UniProtKB/TrEMBL annotation:
Residues 1-34 are annotated as: Disordered. It comes from the Bacteria. InterPro entries: STAS_dom_sf (IPR036513). This is STAS domain-containing protein.
Length: 142
């Protein structure tokens, strides 16, 4: 622990794969939720309509990645659509980070979340039962 980090701490890495606008979170030597290697926990893919597709798992192992992605989305000030169809799990903190990102958008702009996973809906409904200005949640799932 010479560098001040616990011996099991591994940094989350983000990378931008260029023109496709794909961000991936990688985490070294940490088991996934299924006990396997969490080599690729989550992807956030820019869609041609200006929206984003979120895939995988957003949890404590990649909150830094999620925060950076949300900052990137919110800093544009446009808002947009986030398709969560392929998101398998999201932590309470990750949902709170999404709510905070939507609050940073200018008046009249919003994030539109489509196809949220059941975990997202349970957390959102428990913590923000009256909804959140700047965040539209579409409650359908294919």
């Amino acid at each position: 622990m010479a560098d001040g980090k616990p011996p099991d701490a591994h940094p989350v890495q983000t990378r931008d794969a260029g023109p496709r606008g794909r961000l991936q979170a990688h985490h070294s030597h940490k088991p996934g939720l299924d006990g396997g290697d969490a080599a690729s926990l989550a992807d956030i893919i820019a869609l041609s309509d200006g929206g984003w597709q979120v895939c995988g798992v957003i949890d404590i192992r990649n909150h830094d990645f999620w925060a950076a992605a949300l900052d990137r989305i919110a800093s544009g000030g446009r808002g947009g659509r986030m398709d969560l169809t392929d998101l398998r799990f999201v932590s309470v903190r990750a949902v709170a980070m999404l709510v905070a990102a939507s609050a940073r958008l200018p008046p009249g702009r919003h994030l539109h979340v489509t196809n949220p996973c059941p975990t997202f809906l349970r957390v959102f409904d428990a913590c923000w039962p009256n909804g959140v200005p700047g965040l539209l949640v579409e409650r359908t799932r294919p």
